[in-house]
Design brief:
Strand content: 25-35%
Structural class: alpha+beta
Number of helices: 6
CATH superfamily of the largest domain: Gcn5-related N-acetyltransferase (GNAT)
Helix content: 10-25%
Radius of gyration: 18 Å
Largest sheet: 10 strands, mixed
Number of strands: 10
Distance between the termini: 39 Å
CATH topology of the largest domain: Aminopeptidase
Length: 230
């Protein structure tokens, strides 16, 4: 990592700073250890794992001794089902996803910008984003007949989080990569961006990678509160 790295973020949560350092080449030690930070939002907590290290953004209702007794470590133990079920109690548990990091591209001349699309705001992708994020914005193509969707929000660690959905009839032809790049052009240049995908969703994983985001670890979100609906 260099001190003059252009990657930046307005988020000031410890996890945001951790991920910014990771994005700029400062990888955590592969010591099997783990770091504990406060949750970035009152309605969501998270467990993140990287090669040989883990970060738990969990409630301080649980002591570090309790977490260790559950088997938390930086070698996969942080994602053990007994850990997340004990921490979530009677709340909800999200899927275990791959975590990607990238950066905004900023506006670029000669490219078609995305526009706000309130008519697409009730699809399941947007509902999910509202469940786990704040400041949710829904974008799409200027063509009112297009069903491609991009969601930009404040998500993991308070960072800019990207979600996307490509209309089924447009899949398999590279349109997903262009859609993600269009989303990155809607983010200020070099602002740190996070995205998630189920490991088995190979098309989404390849799309994110080809659009310039890199897989860096895994993340599982949960809450010990009742289901949150907007």
């Amino acid at each position: 990592m260099t001190t003059d790295s252009p990657i930046w973020t307005p988020a000031r949560h410890p996890l945001a700073r951790f991920l910014r350092e990771l994005a700029t080449g400062n990888r955590p030690p592969t010591d099997g250890g783990w770091l504990r930070v406060t949750p970035w939002a009152p309605h969501v907590q998270g467990i993140l794992s990287f090669p040989g290290h883990a970060v738990l953004a969990v409630s301080y209702d649980h002591t570090e001794v309790e977490l260790s007794d559950l088997g938390v470590d930086g070698c996969g133990g942080a994602h053990h089902p007994r850990v997340v079920t004990a921490l979530a109690k009677d709340g909800w548990i999200d899927s275990l996803d791959l975590l990607f990091l990238g950066a905004g591209l900023g506006e670029q001349p000669g490219t078609e910008p995305l526009v706000t699309r309130h008519d697409l705001a009730r699809i399941p992708l947007v509902e999910h984003a509202r469940r786990v994020c704040s400041e949710v914005q829904v974008f799409g193509r200027p063509d009112p007949g297009s069903e491609d969707v991009v969601v930009l929000s404040r998500g993991i660690g308070g960072l800019r989080e990207l979600f996307f959905h490509l209309a089924p009839q447009r899949r398999g032809h590279g349109h997903g990569v262009e859609l993600v790049r269009a989303a990155l052009r809607a983010v200020p240049e070099n602002e740190l961006v996070v995205a998630c995908s189920a490991p088995a969703n190979r098309p989404a994983v390849l799309t994110l990678e080809r659009a310039g985001l890199a897989p860096v670890g895994s993340v599982q979100l949960f809450s010990d509160r009742p289901e949150r609906r907007s």
